[in-house]
Amino acid sequence: MLKWLEWAKEIQAISQAGLAYTKDVYDKERFEQLRALSISIMQEYSEAGEDKIRTLFASETGYQTPKVDVRAVIFQDGKLLLVREKADGAWALPGGWADIGLSPSEVAVKEVQEEAGYDVRAVRLLAVLDKKFHRHPPSPFHVYKMFIQCEITGGAAGIGTETSAVGFFERDALPPLSEERNTAEQLDRLFRYNNHPDLPVWMD
Length: 204
What we know:
Domain Nudix hydrolase: 65-193
Pfam family, one: Nudix_N
Distance between the termini: 16 Å
Family: Belongs to the Nudix hydrolase family.
Organism: Paenibacillus ihbetae
Order of helices and strands: HHHEEEEEHEEEHE
Protein name: ADP-ribose pyrophosphatase
C-alpha cells in the first residue's frame, strides 16, 4: 500500500474515534485538526477534490470500522456472471456496499437484481477478504469483501443504473476487469469453487 494513503487512513480513523468519544472541547479541536490533516494528505496526492474527499472519506461519525463490499458469484454452464460497470467500462461481479438493515445474503440478492436483472437466492459464503492483501488499486477505505454464491431462480438479463451490459464468461475468456471491484486472481479462485464445492471458505 502507498505510505501516504496508509498514513491518511490511520489519521482519519484516529480523528473519527476521538471525535466520537471525547468530552473535552480542546481535544475536539485537536481531533478536528487531525481530520483536516488527513483530508489535506488525500487532496495533495490524489485527483479528488476537497469536497469529494470530505464527503466520501471524512464524513462518517462514531468509531471507525471497515466498509463491507458484497459480491454475488453466479455460475451457469461453467461460466461466471459479470456485469459491465458504467463507472469505468470494465467488468465485475454484481455487488456493492452493504446496506444498513440488510443481511449479506439480502445485499447479494438485491445487487444481482438491480445490476443484472436476475432473481437469485444466496447459497453459501465463498470468501471474506481484506482488500489490502489483494491487487486492487489504492482506496481511501479499509474494505472487507464478501463473495456469496447465488443461484438463478428467475428473471432475465438486464442492465441497471450502474451497469451497461451483462454476460457469462469462461475462465479463460474473461473481459477486462474492474480491478477496483475484483481481481483476476480472485475470479480464478472463485472458479475453483464451481468445480470443487467442498473447498473451505477463503479468508483474508
